[in-house]
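Structure tokens please, single chain.
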Amino acid sequence: MCQCHCWVCLHVSASLLGLIACVSVTAGFVYMCLSLLVFQAKRIFKCPSGCTCTSDSIICVGSSFIPRAVPSDINSLLLSSNSLSNIKEDAFSAKIHKQCYVNNYTTTVIKQAQVCLLIELFFVHNIRDLRGNLFQCDCESKWLMLWLKRSNATVSDVYCAGPADLKGLLMKDVPDKHAKCISTDFVSHQIINTQSMSADIFFYKEDIYAALPVPDSDSCIIMEWDHIETKFRPFDNITGQSVIGCRSVLINEQSFVIVTQLFNGSRIYKFNQEQNKFTKFQAVEMLNVSKPNDIEVFRIGDEQFFLIVDSSKAGVSTLFRWNDTGFFPHQFLHEWFRDTDAEFFDLDGKAALILTSRSQPPIIYQWNKGNQMFVLYDEIPNMDDMVSVKAFRINNILYLAMACYIGDSKVLKWTGKNFVEVQGMPSRGAMVLQPFMFKDQHYLVLSSDYSFSQIYRWDKEKQLFIKFREVYVQWPRSFTPLSTGQRDFLFATSFKGKSKVFEHVSVDYS
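Here you go.
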């Protein structure tokens, strides 16, 4: 038996024999986990128009139909942001399967989309067996508690697994304690028809900009935030050759953009007020940088630095320092290690750098005020093949979020002596594990090249991140938070598809 979002389980007997499917229906969203048991003869399969196909999955975004001819080796079919207003009676040639798993996420289905299909088709007048499922009797489960109280359907006893004061109580007997039940969600706000490796959001003269490196068009696109339309719009286009990185830096009230390229060196551009665009300011000395992979910009005291991370065996990650006329090489870090990412952070009051690598554990450097250099401080063992690292704090406690492409991404906590693992998150095609905070709520988003990216929310009681929502971005490369006024947004870049902006919204589950 498979387990899905909305957890409506069906026995499908159409063209695929013995197919067990779980179907989730939301406003324009269908999710099916397929457990394939017996199949007909394999046919030549052509990926449906508008879909992305791998050896074992199909993802369709904006689809107006449900694919019918699914090959036997496909074990997951995901339909997102589609225009399905209903599911036809013969869409699956399905009958209700007795065992059904229900999940809190169906609140969005009922509250926002007012989709009665879920209740009318899958619950009413059918025997439901919900035993063995664990439910948190909180605001997000309130819709289920109310349905259990009011429904005439025959439903097995369902008990609360938490919180502690309600544990063991029948869900239908939970008293209505709150007049208001407020949670949060991430909804699509803007789709940007641009493929990008990252989004660096920066503020300059009361305006908001985003710098997007676009390798396919050999450019660094600068977008400007429209305060009236509350959306990003094109502002400038810095052309180059195989641009893979764009990062902003503000020095003496002047705005600069660092542009790294795979070929023909890298450049720094300065905003020209008269021309209202960025113009070339400096060519960066890249003698020891062979394959730039990341740019980390930071200040130590009054000094401005940036680090170019080199991911080749022949290159060296290089630190550059500002000297009033431009940026120049200041220090060469370790060689031959194929660095993938770098993060600057404060470690017990001292400036520190951590570098991840494909060939060794993460390395921590600490700033030495005496010689004005970074010196090796420590390494984090048993964390090989991490592709990115981000530092963040919760209640002033330092954490690291490290992404592993295939395996387990990790959350680590600083003990005062070293970093220790506190949580692992299964990863499939993860390039980033990005921490961010909106409205005093901490989140992590774990990217995926093969499925939906997972958003986790910090649980204060458990002191862990709990899986919370999903968003779909094709081959995501970064998730960058933006807060403007009273609204919060998450800018997601795509390596092979369209970049997206999601808005963080409050949802009333009362």
